[in-house]
Amino acid sequence: MLEKSVLAGFDADQQELLQLTWTLINAIQTGDTEVYALLTSDELSCYEDVCDHRIDGLAFHTSLIQQMAGSDTQPVRFDMLSPRVQVYANTAIVCYTRLITFNNAGKPHWQSYNESRVFVRFAGEEGTRHWKMVHFHRSPV
Hints:
Layout: H1 4-7, H2 12-30, H3 33-38, E1 40-47, E2 55-56, H4 59-69, E3 77-88, E4 91-104, E5 107-123, E6 129-140
Parallel strand pairs: 1-6
Antiparallel strand pairs: 1-2, 3-4, 4-5, 5-6
């Protein structure tokens, strides 16, 4: 969960989107492909540093998350720095810098990325509405 201090100053929709983003990132870090898939559109598109081209579809990411979960270089924590949330009706953009901490032979090592995630609020069962990530962009800092 995000610390309350990170959520301060954001309205209820913005707080929900920040928590959702944190849950997605945590699913990536812990290898939880079920949670990641539940919160992500099957039609996901992205640009990230692992490929020079746009990547479409959820399968690439769930496979990558599973591979990372078995890696010896798992992060020990992540932080969302300077988050910004923009909501436009049923579309939202969450952008931030993700600071990832690794344990390198007992010494901390950091990597940081600028990330933007685009969400759309879809109608669900019994009139409920829920956000799903439809696109993201990740660039190393």
